[in-house]
Each structure stands twice: as structure tokens, then as C-alpha cells.
Amino acid sequence: MATSTRKEDKQDERAQDAADEQASNEQAEKQQDDADAAAMANGQPDGEASDDDQPDAESDDIAEQAQDEKPQGEASGEDDSDEEPQDANDESPAGKPIDVPGEASLEVEFNTYPANSYAHDDLGFEEDDLIEIYRNMLLQRRFEERCRQMYQRQKISGFLHLYIGQEAVSTGSIQAIGLGEDTVITAYRDHGMALAMGMEPDACMAELFGKETGVSKGKGGSMHFFDAERRMFGGHGIVGAGVPLGAGIAFAHKYRGDDEICLCFFGDGAVNQGAFHEAANLAGLYDLPVVLICENNQYGMGTHIDRAMAESKVYRHAVSYDMPGGVANGMDVFSVNKAVRDHVEMAREGQPSLLELKTYRYQGHSISDPAKYRAEGELEGQQEQDAIARLHKYMLDEDLASEDALDEIDDEVKQETKDAIEFAEESDLPDEEAIYDDVYSEDDYPFLMR
Description:
Helix content is 41%, strand content 8%. It is of the alpha/beta class. The strands form two sheets. Strands 1-7-8-4-3-2 form a six-stranded parallel beta sheet, sandwiched between helices. The radius of gyration is 31 Å and the shape is elongated. It starts with 5 loop residues before the first helix and ends in a 24-residue tail after the last helix.
């Protein structure tokens, strides 16, 4: 594993540019001195115009008359300051000579985080931390399973994108940031991220039921979970649309001068969207404190990534935007946590980065997708490296928990999701008048004609 030094390279390039500009200015001054010396040799004092250059008396009179007629308070157009005009090379890099090397090559090292490479104590986790991590991942799994049941019973309508199989990504990532301080933005498969950030299952389920007690007051549904207090900024339904917003949030962090960073999540399908590349370019250009995290679950709807992307190793796209890139096994919560920690540290130092977390979704793209495009035995093979089962085995092997204790956690989580359903069913639908709320700023509300 190696850490990229692109930020240092930028600083070296800027220092070299400054040195080149200084040398260019010195050369220009020398040429001017030579010209002045030549003029003196021809009998023309420095700075004195020749006879051919002298304006006639009539021109002087016209100039004086024009100056007298200029309205009071209007600038003459002449620069009264003592400063010398700047050289063109000081204004724009375009003033530099065009230089194309005879040969060019690029060698880049990326950060890699394979599975089974880290132990809990390597990351500073105590036994209680592991129990909470396991519980949170299991909560996401059981919650999503209940969502599938509720959709089939027509309690939930509209779109429903389940997170089953990807739980290590959300939990491992959130364990690497300052919850309530750092910001998070994600795509439409957002239930797991919401639960990883501590949003209540009751309010999350109520949102899916369209109830006023939901996290978005019943108006957002599955794809638009939101919690300002926890700094969770969505939940966005358009592929790739959240990435520019994540760059904007990171710009706000930099503008305000705080120490906070933004984790910006998106799927592999979003990498083919122009919005992703525009945002990545600005992040690299302005050194924004953002970690661009691709949750590569292998499929964009029903198309495998290798059939949709010329360069399917997403982390390699970091090179185009002059930022470090990394890739981690998203089916190992420890690998995810270590990867995100490293990249968050870069972001706090003003270095954006692109991190690919390779994971796998067990369900179809949405609840209506039967996933017939998978190869025979593909799902079963991926489930053999299930992140929850991996952590379960690790805790037993390391004598960090007993089988009975882990079973008890599962029972508690199942009851919690059952209670969430009861809460959602008992909650009220939003009032019809509330349709106008939460659309615009309400400082001068109401201002809409009804």
C-alpha cells in the first residue's frame, strides 16, 4: 500500500512556475537595458522621443482642450499609480512557451485494502465497539428484509432499492468520521446509510409508509432520507446527481475554514455520468475536502460494470483529476474502515481522493427486478464472503463474543424492526395543507397563491 504524493507534486510545479516566471522577467529586463544602451549609442537619450515621434503643437492644443472638457470626477484613463504594469506571464500560464516532451509516461501507485488484512485492535476497536458494529450491520439487514415484506403486502409503494449485502460499506465508513460534524451524501439506495448514521428505524420505516413521522415527513420516500442534525444530506434519486452536491458541500467546508470533510457516495453506474466527472474535476482543481466513494456493487441496473465502462477499475479514474485513488474490499468492514480512515485524513489536509469499495448487492436493482441477468451460482458464490457472516466468525474465533450473545443481538434487532412497522402503521399521513411546506425557505411564508 502506498500513499500518493500528488499534493506535494502540485506544490513543486507551482514553485517551478514561479522560478520560470522570474527568469522570464529578468530576461525581459536585460533586453530592455540592451535596447536603451543602443539608443544612447545613437545619440538618443534614454526615454526621449526622436524628432519624428514628437507631437506637433496643434496636437498638444487638442489634447489639452479634451482634458479641460472632461466632466469633473471622470477618470482620465491614465494610471496614476507608481506600479509597473504586470508582465503577461504573471497573469496567465498561457504565456509560457509551448513545451511538448519527446516521450511521456506516468507511473501511479494506488492504495489497496484487501479483505482479512486488518484486525479490530489494529483499528483501535474495543470489544464493545465490535458488538455495536455487528449490531448495526445486522439491523440494516433485518430492516431491509422487513421492507421487502412490507412492499409485497402493499404497505410500501413506489421505488424501493434494498441495501442487502452492502452493509459493511455504510457501517465501516461512518465509523471513520465524526458523526454529527462531518457530512455525508449518498444516492437512492440510502436506507443502510441512514441506519449506520443512527437514524431511528421507526422514523425510517414511517417514511417508507409515507407517514408524517418519517425522516422526511412522509414526502421523500425510499430515495430521499435526510437528517440535518446528523449531517446526512440525502438520499438522491437521479443517478450521479448527488456528486456535484457533495463537491459543493466540501466547498462550503473549505470556504468556512472548518476541519470538516464530506463523504460523497455514489454507485458504479454514476461513474459514466458527466456530473461525476465535472464534480471530480472541481474537487481536484480546488483541493476540496471530499472523499468520492464509489459503492461498486457490480451492476448498474441489469448491466455488469465490465459491459458498461471502458475502464472498469473505478479507482484508476482518480488519475484524470490529479488526486489519489484507492480500492478496498467492501465485504470486509475492517478493510472499509481502514480505507475510509486513510482517505478522510487526506481530505482533512485538503487533498480530495477517489475510493472504490467493491461490494455486491444480493437483491435486484429495485424491488421489481428479478435479477435474471446473474450467472448461475453467482449470488451463492458472493454470499460466501458475506460481511456480516465474516464479522460473526471473526468475533467467535477471537473469543470476543459467544454464539448465544450474537443470537440475542439478532433477536433484539428483529424486535426493533417489528416495532418500527407498528410505529409506521399507527402514524398519521401528512395533512393536505403540508404539501406547501418544506419546499422553499419559510422566512416570509406563506407566499404561494393557493
